[in-house]
Amino acid sequence: MAMITNEMLLEELEKSPQEITPKGAEYLKFMVTRIIQVFKFSNQLDQENLKDLIANTTVFTAQQWEKFNRDKDKPFSYFNVIIKSFLTRNWRKYRPAGEMQPKIIFDDGSVEFVLEALGNKIDEEGYIAEQDGTRVKDPEGEEILATELGGIKGKKFFKGDLSSIMKLAKGEW
Known about the structure:
The chain is mainly alpha-helical and 173 residues long. It has helices spanning 6-15, 22-39, 47-62, 75-90, 111-117, 162-169; strands at residues 120-122, 128-130, 149-153, 156-159. It is globular.
């Protein structure tokens, strides 16, 4: 299976809107696995914890099957948000004790995905914004274009320029 589409999920939802089908469960597990790969969680967990995270995320997502509203949502987006939300809230439970602080590493292709998972978005001019449209600013008070994003520490966003990275490394921010 290379990818999951809205049509594939809708077909299963139409077969059984109240209870997930075996094929629907397979689709959700595939989506969970792909999202974990994009977030690079699999690089930070041992195989046993990774299997548990995939299983528990898939079960939680499957429990939301009957809540899908065809008039309101597209199935891929609906389940994608549920998966990302669950992972964002719960993945640390699966990290072995004593491990270093968790890090999510992402590339240009996943910036929008990561921002959405953190409750942010990219506005119409390409700037990082809160859901209410307020633009996010770096510690110096400058608005940040999504293409300039260098990292996120806590709730602080940083540009990827040398000056910002040096200040961050020196602990000035």
